[in-house]
Design goal:
Largest sheet: 4 strands, antiparallel
Order of helices and strands: HEEEHHHHEH
Structural class: alpha+beta
Strand order of the largest sheet: 1-4-2-3
Radius of gyration: 16 Å
Strand content: 15-25%
């Protein structure tokens, strides 16, 4: 579910599972929703000089499991840690002598979240940040973004 207000802000792509997303290495903004038809929960920017560049670099950082403490990765991990069943599975792994490394916990939380993404390309990072700010200002959305309606 995405509001008409957000849809009208930019030419968004079709939704794809985050795990298999392959956006271009261009600046832009991405939206994430929980589940194939779930609510939009996160908006982020792929604009800086990250490995792979732009949107591709940002989303690959999350799918690698290495972004547990930044942006969307932190939002996912915080919610997975608050899920008793998910945390019980991790505890059972530890108790059976099969503890996972932190990156593996990040990947497990990503699978738990079942996120789908779409994106809109922008001409540069400045335009991407402005679009993100407009999307975050939309009322009635329970954003996972740590900065809430103020962007990052």
């Amino acid at each position: 579910m995405i509001s008409r207000e957000i849809l009208d802000m930019a030419p968004w792509t079709e939704w794809v599972p985050l795990i298999s997303a392959d956006p271009p290495p261009s600046p832009g903004v991405y939206l994430a929703r929980q589940g194939e038809d779930g609510p939009v929960v996160y908006v982020g920017v792929g604009a800086g000089p990250r490995k792979g560049g732009g949107l591709r670099g940002r989303l690959r950082r999350y799918t690698s499991g290495k972004a547990l403490a930044s942006g969307l990765g932190e939002g996912i991990f915080d919610r997975a840690l608050a899920d008793r069943e998910w945390l019980s599975e991790r505890l059972a792994e530890v108790e059976s002598g099969r503890p996972m490394r932190a990156v593996q916990w990040g990947k497990a939380s990503l699978v738990w979240a079942d996120l789908w993404v779409c994106w809109a390309l922008t001409k540069d990072g400045e335009e991407a940040l402005a679009l993100e700010k407009r999307v975050l200002a939309v009322p009635r959305v329970d954003w996972w973004n740590r900065a809430g309606r103020g962007g990052h």
